Amino acid sequence: MANNQTVMNYQIGRDFARHADDDDELREFRQAFVFPPSRNERDCVYLCGNSLGLQPKLAVRYVEEELAEWARLGVRGHFQAKRPWLSYHRNTRQGLAELTGAKKHEVVAMNSLTVNLHLMMSSFYRPTSGRRKILIESTAFPSDRFAVESQLRMRGFDATLDLIEWSPRLGENDLLIDDLQSILQQQGDEIALMLLPGVQYYNGQLLDMQKICQLAREYGCAVGLDLAHAIGNVPMRLSEWDPDFAAWCSYKYLNAGPGAIGGAFVPERHHVDAAHTHLLGWWGHDEETRMKMSSTFSPAKGVDQWQLSCPTVLSLAPLLASLELFQQADISRLRRKSLKLTGYLDFLLREEFSGRATSITPDVARGAQISMTIVDPAANPREVFERLQSQNVVLDWREPNVIRVAPAPLYNNYTDIYEFARRLRIALSSQQI
Fold first, then answer.
1. Chain-wide mean pLDDT for the chain?
2. Mean pLDDT along residues 180-190
3. Which domains occur in the chain, in start order?
4. Cα(300)–Cα(370) distance, integer angstroms
């Protein structure tokens, strides 16, 4: 991956942003989303796609269509709706496969992220007396840590002894793959599972998922990927990389709405492994015989056998709308634009805010996020964040001192980045907002 600073010839000033927007081949997709309204005569600068994506206008239509079908058909909508509800999850399969680089029968939209992580760990965390430890990154999102700790405790293990952390080096922010390999060289024969992110939520680092999966195979560990900050952000090739599982949410870059349905990937090599066990539910039963109400479980084809319950149609409808936009835009084109947007933001931080604000996100290996810290000794970082909010800039704060700025290439543009920098200068100044 090329260094982001060389992607474009960045320049100071509004004219650069305006011309870059005019040249943007994806600029029309911005019109497909609803932005929060102006406030205090300031347009909203929305840079929080890593926390909650904006609403696609098409999502409203798709939800309204399902509500209308419910009113028109009642229970018959399961079979007779325009998009029959019994198989509604299959409408998202192609879009999810394209974003994850998977085969269609390896991906499914279901549940929520942490639920899916527990489901997957119930299948692929298979501890033995000698190999029972789980490895995570030290800065894992708390819900992942809680899920892993509970998996250990439920099996009678001690989370303080059997949880291994891959940490950045002292005084650094990035996770180094050489350090992961060193851990595996020393303790690999004790590790049953590695659960690691595609993009690290705190500093925005893009991890080498292919190398992680390769190391897991080399040292005999199962490996799962948390793709919450990766899906819809960076291109992936899960079928090729071959983790044992992956899981994600869809309310961030996938723009499916608050608390939206999640998803999971299981490679086809696990679909027919008779020795594998997983939690069973009605919707994991073979579709051909499901309605015969047999007391004998017959697994569905592909990853669908990991489903427990019927599709949540009103939650799937916004996801379907967003996936259609991704398919039109193409994740490779979105990634190129994303690198340019974050490169522009990083350029402005270096050129205009040296000694006042800085990025802790890697220059090269990153997703669509810049994690910024305020280093100006005269400024209070939390107050700077709140001043940005008062200027109708939407981003988020992560303790103890990080402001995450995430331009989503489907709907953000270069003017958003320019305007963020302009308002950051005001937030760092002593003038009143």
1. 95
2. 97
3. 4-56+330-428 (3.90.1150.10), 84-250+262-278 (3.40.640.10)
4. 42
